[in-house]
Each structure stands twice: as structure tokens, then as C-alpha cells.
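Submission sheet (multi-component)
Chains listed below:
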Amino acid sequence: MKKSRSQIVTGLSLLVILLLYGSVSQGAETTGAVGFQKKPFLGKSSPMLELPIPQDAADIRYLGLSGAGNFTIEQVKSRVLIIEVFSFYCPHCQRSAAQVNELYQNIEVRPGIKEKIKMIGIGVGNSLYEVNSFRERYRVPFPLIPDQSMEIAELLGVRGTPTFIVVKLDGKELQEQIYFGEGGFQDTRQFLAEIIKSAGLEAEGTK
Amino acid sequence: MMSEQTKGKSLMLSIIGVCILMAGIATVYGQSGGFSEFKDYVYPVGKLIPRDSVAMLKVGDSAPNFTLPAVYGSKVSLNQFKGKRNVVISFVPAAWTPVCSDQWPGYNIVKDLFDKHDAILLGITVDNIPTLYAWTKQMVTQNENLWFPVLSDFYPHGAVASKYGVLRSEGVTERAIFLINKKGIISYIDIHDINQRPPLEDLAKALEALDKQ
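Outcome: structure written.
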């Protein structure tokens, strides 16, 4: 009896390992340093990935944009852009809203870092009204942009909310995606530290 | 460099990923999409006929009264709000199905909107109370509840949904919103495509129109 049970356990473990191997090997070639999950997307040019310029003047200033119409990610005046793909309707996003705000605050209190890391939220399947309702409810300090048709989320390879994507920019083009994480992050300080390290901002010092 | 925490998390995410792949949920991402610990509990229904019922009521009609058991507390009757509050009724097809699994969590964070227009929200499905209990529990943080009553139209099955002309042939309801003013008159009906979530601004506009009546 005992033996057959252990056989079942072994069998199940093997099955789980096999399944895990399958999923891990898919992403293996793109797994980068410091445990950040990478995932190929966009490539260097991303003409498709256009986002509407926020209406709020403070948001436009924060992202270093100008005018109206659309903008592309590489136009954001920053070295690093943290993108939170969320939804007004997602309980997980609602629960972690305060923590995501905290990430923003942690960046903003650090001179030398705050100029180099910006954040935006993309509300997948949300209307402008819904995105604004979320922002009001949780007093989100960074710009939130609606993606009602879910096209942007699809281009980013997002399968659910919340998903965090961190990209490196150099003022002209999108250099690389340094993080792709589904389901949020655990420790805010650690997450920020890993972003800074992964983007190579640490080596530049904080002048 | 990889912390134990990160390792554990990426392992967990791999497992989640496998589950998602196996359930084929990825293909219906647009309908669901949350990464809550209960994501995999949501049953992928696929694309349904947008509408599968015959309208019984129109704007201007008197709203049929009903009394239904609520998940918390006792029974709730429509009549109890007459002369006091505007009532928004949100029928969603069924617990643990895409789209509705996140429709009410949205309403849950905009109580202000309902308060502003002196409205109460009543959520109704044809599920039984224990199912609704479990399902609504995962919409909120521990020790919290949805701010609005959730009512069970389970037995006799879909009786209220029938009266409102939103019971579908497979026994679930349409994704429908009825707005009933303080006089008990229906002032707005949105029998929505079951596959899509009604945008919040539509309801907000209907509530605003109510103030002008």
C-alpha cells in the first residue's frame, strides 16, 4: 500500500517537473540577471505601441512629453520606465494599489534616481472614466492610461493583471525589457533595488 | 543574486503559468485576466450568444417587486427602497465565470458614485448562497465585504430574472443593469452583450440623468 502511494507521489512529482521544465525552458533563453524574468517583446522599434498623451498637465510634465495626440514609450524622458498593466476591475490590482504607490514614493524621494525612473499604468480593457475612477479611489500619483481595446496589453504580451514590465530607454529608442513579472511584486524596496541594479543606474552613482 | 523569495515566486508563477496554459484560459484572456490566487477557479465559458432572452420590461414600466435571500443578513425586497433610494440592479450570468468575476469588484470601489446619486446597488445571480458567499469573498480583502447586498435567485430558479426578462435558455441570466427610481419606475435598462463588461461611464450617465428627473 505504502509503496504504491509513494509511486504515485513520484509519478506526480515527475509530471509536475516535466510541466515546469516545459514552461521554464520556454523562457530560459531570455532569463536575465538578478532573477528578473525577461520576455521578448516589441524589439527595438515599436511603432505600433502608441499611447494617448495624458490630459493632465502634471502627467505630461512628469513623462517629459509635449503636445497632444499619441506618444511612444521611447519618447518618455527617462532612463527606465516601469509599466504596470492593471485593471479597474481587478481585485488584485485594487489590493496592491497602495504598494504600487509606495514604489512611486520610494523613487521620488531619491534624487538622482527619480529623474531616471518613471512609472505609468495601463488600464487594460478600461475606459478613460474607469481608469480615472481607479486613480481617484487610490490616489495614484503616476499617469494611468486606458487601453480599452486591449491592443497595448496584447503587444506587451500581457496575459493578466497586474503585470509589471520594466524597460530601459536611452532617449531615442527602447533598449531592452529588463523585467516582466506577472502578479505583482513582494517587497517594494527589494523590487526597486533590483530595477536600479538591472538597469545599471547604480554604477552611474547618484549625482 | 536571486533571493529565495524571488525563486519561490517565480516557481509559483511557473505553476500558475502551466495551469493557465492547461486550462486554455490564455485564449480568453480578454474576458478574464486577473492574477489573483483564484484566477484558475474562473471557468472559461468561451464566447456566448450575446443575448438569449426576450425583453419583458421597458423604460417607464413599474419595476416588478421581488424578495430574495442575501448572502449576508436576511432577505431583501425591492419595495423596501421605494420612496427612499434609487436602485441599481446588476444581474450577472453566474458566479465563477469570466467578465462578471470582475464586474462587481469594480462597483465595489466606487461606492461614492452610487452614494452621490442616492442609489443602492443590488447584485443578483441565479447561484445559491454558499456559492455566492465563496465567490464574493475572493473579490475583497480578508475581513471585508462588498458594500452592496448580493442576492440569490436560485430557487425557484431564476424566478426574478424571468420576471425581468433576462433569464437565458441555459439557466443563467443576461448581463443586465436596471435602474429603478425612487417611485419604483424603471428609468434605464442595459441588457448587455453577455461577453462584454458594461462600461462604468454608461451607468454613471444613467445615474446622472436620474437626478434631473
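Remark: The beta strands of chain A are 50-52, 70-72, 80-86, 117-124, 144-147, 163-169, 174-182.
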